[in-house]
Queue: 4 jobs
Job 1
Amino acid sequence: MNIKLNLAVNDQDLRLNLFLGLANWFLFLDHIPNNVVNLITSRNYGFSGAADLFVFVSGYTAATVYGRIMLERGVIVGATRIFKRTWQLYAAYIVLFTSYVVSIGYIAGQYSAPDLINEFNISAFIEHPVKILYHALFLQSKALNLDVLQLYIVLMLFLPPALWMMMRRPALTMAASLALYFGARTFGWNLASYPDGDWYFNPFCWQLLFVFGAWAALHRAQDTPRFLRSAIALDLAIAYLIFAFVMTMAGRFAAFGQLFPAWLLDAFNPNDKENLAPYRALHFVVMVFVVTRFISKDWQGLKSTMFDPLIKCGEQSLAVFCVGVFLAFIGHFTLMISSGSVLTQILVSATGIAILTLVAYYITWSKEQDARKTVTRSTEPAPLSAEHGVGQPQRQDRHIGDDREHDQKQHQERQDTAYHLAD
């Protein structure tokens, strides 16, 4: 099957974890306001940003991991694994939300900084904690910087039917995703937040990038139209990226924006992030097209130790994201109570990135130790009874143990690959 071949090709594609790690770093930096370092993130140079990259790669890796499980072990087993992963994400969200808002409330009280409560959208929690916790269980909270995780949980929850359709009717599934996207934008569909408003990332619109990621994981590059592999297509793509950069700069700098007609400037500024504006979605698709043209799966530079920190952060994406939310708050508060100088901003950002990297390396090391312990236990020879003696039966037991060790190692390698991709 072409799908099975494509999933096999996606194994050990370091670009996935590399860019997922980059998305986590950029999200951390973007969540620290008044920080000169976040000027390097992708949102400053085009219509799309780190959130787009996070959602796309998450859809890609989810289709790679769970698509293989569905092919090898059946749809039901694949669906249960997806729901298990969704539960892990949901549990992480509840723990993160509770500790996050409590920490912000405590620090705001201790340091007489009530503005933090309003800035991080937790004023309702201070006034009605029980109601807010109740609605948080249904992902209706509006605590700042938790939006991406909320969106990811909902997208994973509806992945089983979407992936089942994608593996059978990929074109029809993408068409349905597009129809839902335009329907949501036309009729204003969104999920409600508490106590008022809608989701910051409209899941009915943002599912388009998630489904597109799944489609890309199951679709071979050789099957793309010849035009998209031509030099003209690449030139047009680069031209659009330049146009997006110019429009973004025009919206950021008023003097530069006056050089363009008001109707053109207003069409792209402010950037419609909530409902994933069509020009934003197109910008991200073009970015994927251009990047994959220049950075192939077999590019030797991916094996450079320079990229190891990013790849590790991509492998442990959930933990890195959760820690990054806390560190962004701590970094923001540090800049508030300090001089807030450029040097301080750089130090805060660099320290946060270093901590995220250390967390990723520690979790990777811890998992490797657990895996070695499991393999060691499974390969320990069973004690022989007195009646066995020391002849042929003992050699048979050793042979059986070797087979078990071989099978266990193969199984562990598959599990490690799937786990890292899913994270």
Job 2
Amino acid sequence: MVEAQRSINEISEHARREIFLALASEAAACSICPAMCERMAVLSERNGQVGARVMFVGEAPGRQGGDRTRVPFSGDQSGQNFQKFLASINLSRSEIFITNAVLCNPRKASGANRRPTAVEVANCSDFLRRQIEVVSPRVVVTLGAVSLDALRRIQYHELTLKESAGKIYEWAGRLLVPVYHPSPQVLASHRRESEQLKDYQAIRRAPRRAEKKLLRDE
């Protein structure tokens, strides 16, 4: 994956954008997961800028969030919380790219959101790998355990959310910052708002550390 990072950085911004648009079209036509064939992948230019320094990876689009708005982490309470956390470190959506480990919304028979299965995460793994390659962020931020586990399928790591949240690690030639998911349920039962705000300070520091790492590597 490090070699892919080097090669993608050598092509023009226009070419990278064309690669991304082709990838988004491929994802839109995907029908691998039987339970999601009625829904479409949330992946387009509305996810953010190709070439963003920081890339966020969530779990899956929410029924009232990304699946409805076509923008990850928007339109629901998780999106509002995420926006608050971004603002706390003076980071705007225009500066980032945001996607999910699973690009389509997983639902129960009742219509409620559900956690994506391991098979669904595996089915979407190649789309995630290729997004990381074409966006080529210096920093990858995982939002929750599902996305942290999804990165393990791309390049192995031994990190766990409980032990690693709010810390900076090297991964696949980039920096990785695991944080908790910004859903109301997680805030109520696993990681309070005050703790998540502290975790985001690592995201604030990571781009500068990545620049120093890049200079050392050169």
Job 3
Amino acid sequence: MPTVLNTAVLAASEGSFLIKPGIGLMIWTLVVFFVTFLLLKRIAFPAISSALDKRQKSIEDSIDTAERTREEAEELLAEYRERLKEARAQADEIVHRARQAAETHETEGKQQGQELIADAQRRAEREIASATERALSDLRREVADLTVTATEKVTRRALSEADQRRLVDEALAELDFSEISAGSAS
């Protein structure tokens, strides 16, 4: 047993190299660290910084383009709403004229006036329906063109016919034309 005890005492008195590192090892570790740091600073860090700057500029340009496209879309939407308002006013004017014509003919003769009123109302309804359909058709076509144009601007590539058809169908599905048709019919 004395040999085991002597060995343990000897190891404890010398210390471990992890607890007491040599000065030479510390100096070489620091030299390698600083050389590696300088190489990274001169070679890797500028390349990484440049790549990050380019990516940031690309993202900012994309955001600016999307914002401009959104503003253009809002302007076009306002213009289409104004056109729709004008179409409704024209439809109201047609109805107003038809009613005036019906009242004038009614005073000439009850029988003849009633026939003219019925004819004028049918004609006005057909004109209103026709004008409404034309306005809705124009609006659908404009929305479809706007959707395709905006999508091509955002994606910066031309769309296939199938993609255009799908985008147009989705855009038209989002618009509620039933209220427009019902509003002008009443």
Job 4
Amino acid sequence: MNEILISALLVIGSFFMLVAGLGMLRMPDLLLRMSCSTKAATIGVGTMLLALALYFENLGVATRALATICFIFLTAPVGAHRIGRIAYLVGVRLWEGTIKDELKGVYPADACLPFGQECLIPDMDAPEVGADIEKEAD
């Protein structure tokens, strides 16, 4: 029974990894490719690591596998989000079939300089520069 569960988890993980690879080849722009790879690969790696933990039947291996699964589930979406946001700010073109650009007009045009230069992304919650000086002058 244990071998059947392990085999099923490996097949499911392999399927999701295959879908992630196909998504990387088939999707038209960077943001869609990152979405495919992050979602499918995270689930694929998670199920394969779960199969590994069940196969070895060792508490140390299972603990490390579960810790790795938690780490991947926490960091992969955050990393993909950050890479996508910077790619958008740098000016990576969206797919021509994109219906709505929800970030258009949110950031100033000079928020991020061309590749290789520093991005100057303002903190949306911070007060404007010089606002505290104007208050003191009044």
